[in-house]
Design brief:
Number of strands: 0
Radius of gyration: 19 Å
Helix content: over 70%
Largest sheet: none
Number of helices: 15
Order of helices and strands: HHHHHHHHHHHHHHH
Structural class: mainly alpha
Strand content: under 5%
Length: about 325
Amino acid sequence: MHHRDRELRERLPVSLILAVSMIAAGVVYPITDSALKHTSPIMIATLRAFVGGLILVLALPLLRSRLPRSRRLWTWAFAIGFGNTTLTQVGISVGTARAGAAVASVLLNSSPFFVALIARFALDEPITRLRATGLVIGFGGVLLVVFADPGNIAHGTQLAIGFVLALLGAIGWAGGGLGMRVLTQREPHLDIPGHTAAQFLAGGIPLIPLAILHAGTTSWGDPTLIAQLTYLIIGGQVLVYLGFNAALARWPSTRVYSWTFLVPVVAVLIEAVQGKLPGPAATIGIIVAITGVAIVNHPRAEASVANVSTPPAS
């Protein structure tokens, strides 16, 4: 990849990259909910992963990028892809279908806590009181937003299955992101688009047999479904993951993952634009979630992390 193109990408503010990614991710929830009326959850997961990978591979020449050329980088791609693609896509699609949007959203948005705990020991990324406070406040806002509508919650066996799948998705999302953070620290000049495409392909392969078994439930002739799948693949998969992986290469993982608290906020705001205004609890939740993310990203939180990480001079 050309150094000039890499430098141009690195000039983009990480906050802008994450804002675009989280808006795109927030649109995924209502579109997925609508698409599930015409296809199976596993089909959505597979198309997002594998077709998203194929599209990104075709776009790599335009991005002056290429797929990994070493066995070691492909090993990383399979490991990261299984976490942030295979498990995460099953957690989002199947978890939402079984447990309801509220439960799946809460569990998937618990990933920043897994990241904070694992990164503290695996990456030696300290968690200061200010950043921990922001995480708790942000997650509290998510709880208010998603549970403001009790109708989104399933019951019984479906809830239990969805609960487990969504939790596995959260763990996979956290593990995949941490793997990407480790890799970018070891490989400062890693080709982000090329490696992201490899992760999609590697993570999509295990889903293909499951999708074939459920292919008969998809209404391929429905133009609305095709439009929805197109967005989920290009916007919800390619755009979101490219931005997220680029951010992980430049910011601490806990700081990056805190932005996922904004995803359900965006989903509620989209409903508001469509005429379904949020109630008082959801409105308060939106404000609280945004406040939590702002605290995590406050310069003092970053400065305090630097102070903790740097040993005092003797």
